Amino acid sequence: MNDKMIKIIQGDITTLAVDAIVNAANQVMLGGGGVDGAIHRAAGPELYEACLKVPEVRPGVRCPTGEARITPGFKLPAKFVIHTVGPVYRDGQHGEPEKLAAATATRSPSRRRTAASPSPSPASRQASTAIRLKTPRRSPCGR
Fold first, then answer.
1. Domain count, the chain
2. Which residue among 23, 28, 55, 133 is the one 20 to 30 A from 64 at the CA level?
3. Is 36 assigned a catalytic role?
4. pLDDT band at 21 (very low <50, low <70, confident <90, very high)
5. Helix residue ranges per DSSP H, 1-113
């Protein structure tokens, strides 16, 4: 019998008590509209301050497309927020497939077992999908 299970939950990502939520952020990481703005509002001003402390890799860019940055969750029930930036689709001829693959393949070195990610459906921007991988917890952080 397989002891791993994927659980999909549709709901408000800012209310989920998981190890980490994945924020579909913009490159500046200072909040925005939609789910990004909701995460920043729910986490409180400490998230904004933490994002300001992330060094810019070039002017106005803290997290380039295809990369991820991690911050504490602050007032969220989630312990961490993983900020990642997906590509803006233009015409499919500007490296969009490769940039999307890089954005979705970025992994946290902490090897967390529980994560939540916004739903990719544009029709349900406020809905989120939580994925919980049920395995024995052996966190390197001792949690």
1. 1
2. 133
3. yes
4. very high
5. 34-43, 45-52, 96-105
**In angstroms, rounded to a whole number, what is the distance separating the alpha carbons of residues 43 and 51?**
12
Q: Is residue 131 within 8 Å of residue 8, measured between CB atoms?
A: yes
Question: Which candidate in 3, 12, 36, 91 is catalytic?
Answer: 36
CB neighbours of 134 closer than 8 A, spacing ≥ 6? 3, 4, 5, 7
Domain assignment present for residue 88? The answer is yes
CATH number at residue 70: 3.40.220.10
How far is Cα 83 from Cα 62, in angstroms, rounded to an integer?
10
Q: Which amino acid is at 8?
A: I
User: How open is the CA angle 67-5-136, to the nearest 5 degrees?
Assistant: 85
Range of the domain at 122: 6-133
Side-by-side strand order, sheet with 128-133 = 6-11, 128-133, 114-118, 20-24, 80-84, 68-72
Position 140 in a domain = no
